[in-house]
Amino acid sequence: MQNRPVVLFLIFSIPLLLAGTCRQPPPAPPDAGLYHTNDEIIDELRRLQSQFPDIAHVTELGESLEGRKIMAIKISGSPGTEEEEPEVIFVGGHHAREWISVDVPFLLAKRLLKNYATDAATRSLVDGGSIWIIPLLNPDGHQYSVDSNRLWRKNRRNNGDGTFGVDLNRNYSFQWGGPGSSGDTFSETYRGPQAFSEPETRILRDLVAAHNFQAIISYHSYSQLVLFPWGYTRSPAPDAVLLQQLATSIADSIFSIHRQRYTPEQSSDLYVASGDATDWLYGNARVPSFTIELRPGSSSPGFILPESEIQPTFEENLPAALFLIKWTQTLGQTTITM
Ligand code: 0X9
Ligand code: ZN
Fold it and tell me: pLDDT at position 333, please?
């Protein structure tokens, strides 16, 4: 009976231990920290629309494969009506793991709206045309990157053979199926069974068909580059001189903020790849189109850009975006070297 106090202690402590376990808060669902998830983007865009109803209009463009809403915000002097005016578009989040590519266009929308009342230059750009922003084109892949596999790239198409995902930036129709894209479902650059097989790329296709965009920036990460067509071939595009000049101006204005070098170059100088968004827009409609590969500059930290770099990455990309908007509104008369 020597052990009686110990036994009693154990018996009485079991309910306490259980209660302690039960009182533990359930583990928090994974989130993206200061980076925005699609749910947060939807909430924030709606909040911006109600804060700035005269200049912001939020649209649900359609749904991803798994049924998530793909949102756009249109910022303009009269956002609810279609006018004959210059239109420009900024798209982020083609690739799931490139979280910074979502926050940069989202913060651009927020800044344009917040500065409208107080900053004459912003007001003139917003009144002078329509600025469309799609922060997150691949919400399924992005959520999967948040929840399950941080380095996921593609969307979440079930390819039916045990593999998942189509590389949205190989799924556009211009030169679809060419070099630098893969027909293998397991590949990170799987182009899909046909051009525009994915609802996410069709959403951009349909928006572009309904508008008259004069320039696009498609944000990606990483490597600090400003890329222009062609990507599918090493041959120069018909407007290579103009595209190179615009890309150089964009890179210069980025550099002017935090002295970060983004290299302007033809997409194929990075690597030849077919079926991307910018080749398609330029190839189909001769729209000056740029892929900006955001921070960082190298594979360390690669896609896992610290949260502390969200704000500076946005800040340095702001004047570049403003430059391109202004260029569309002055029909190319904007001074190219800034
Ligand atoms: O491969 C891509 O889609 C882009 N790079 S990323 O690391 N963000 O995946 C680059 C697209 C540039 N286009 C071509 N090289 N064609
Ligand atoms: Zn990318």
Answer: 59
